[in-house]
Amino acid sequence: MHGFDDEGRQFDAQGNLKNWWTPQDATKFQSRAQCIVEQYAKYTVVDKIKINSKLTLGEDMADLGGMVLAWTAWKVQTTVVKPESRDGFTPEQRFFIGFAQWACENNRPEDLRVQAATDPHSPGKYREWCGGESAGLARPLPVNPAQR
Fold first, then answer.
1. Rounded to whole angstroms, how far apart are CA atoms 40 and 34?
2. What is the CA radius of gyration of the chain?
3. Which has the higher per-residue pLDDT, 140 or 108?
């Protein structure tokens, strides 16, 4: 998914650094990217330190884009064979639970402070929970749906 994030979009199909986007597409991209920047900037890492969402934008976009692609593929696949509910969770809920498990982590506050200043990845607890809203697992991503 990094081919379509804030850095990857700067390369053409041959891997050359080149501005190949139309001005209209670039403007739409920047507008949608700004929506992600604004959302992630609201999340508290530790104490009163917020995510540096301009630093994490590429990873946040890749996480969200990867989740959308995986969700789309899962929906197509499950039209052939419908999974069953298990352990009180619907198949849709189980998809998001499984998808979010890779981002589970337990960090010390000191580590989170350093990460907030230097790491281009958002803390794990913010990397995947946003997508579970459609399966009733997480609070909705509070972004105006018209801006998504």
1. 10
2. 17
3. 108
